[in-house]
Amino acid sequence: QVHLVESGGGLVQSGGSLRLSCAASGILNSINVMGWYRQAPGKQREWVAHISRNGVTNYATSVKGRFTISRDNAKNTVYLQMNSLKPEDTAVYYCVADRHWATLGSSDYWGQGTQVTVSS
Predict the structure, then answer these.
(1) How does pLDDT run along the chain (120 residues), one tens digit per residue?
(2) What would you report as the CA-atom Rg of the chain, rounded to the nearest whole angstrom?
(3) Beta carbons of 83 and 66 less than 8 angstroms apart
(4) Strands 114-119 and 46-52
């Protein structure tokens, strides 16, 4: 079993920054990719970014250049630095972990979510 705990959400003004953290615990041998999804009210959950164990990253077009994903393998923690936030970034952000990026969206391992609200 893998347990994920997010932190760092909150309320910020447009143009501001937030950093989300996700700490993983449990049996992590099979976890190679960690990432973030988000879900805005009335919308489907969407992929934001992911990072492999060796540090290869990938971003959704909507956040590229504004968000940075990173990980500390020694701490089993992944981070999402969010800069130049926009009201449309408002959502619940979920941490996710899986063996491969292609199966990230259908992973069994999700955090509880953390709310990010960007005011205009």
Answers:
(1) 999 999 999 999 999 999 999 999 998 888 999 999 999 999 999 999 999 999 999 999 999 999 999 999 999 999 999 999 999 999 999 999 999 999 999 999 999 999 999 999
(2) 13
(3) yes
(4) unpaired
Element spanning 19, H or E = strand 18-26
Candidates 63, 55, 1, 12; CA nearest to 36 is: 63
Task: Report residue 60 as tokens.
Answer: 């959704």
Q: Which of 120, 107, 87, 88 is nearest to 22 (CA)?
A: 107
Would you state the structure tokens that stand for residue 41, as one six-digit string? 């009210």
First to last CA, the chain: 40
Cβ(69)–Cβ(49) below 8 Å: yes
Beta bridge partners of 30: none
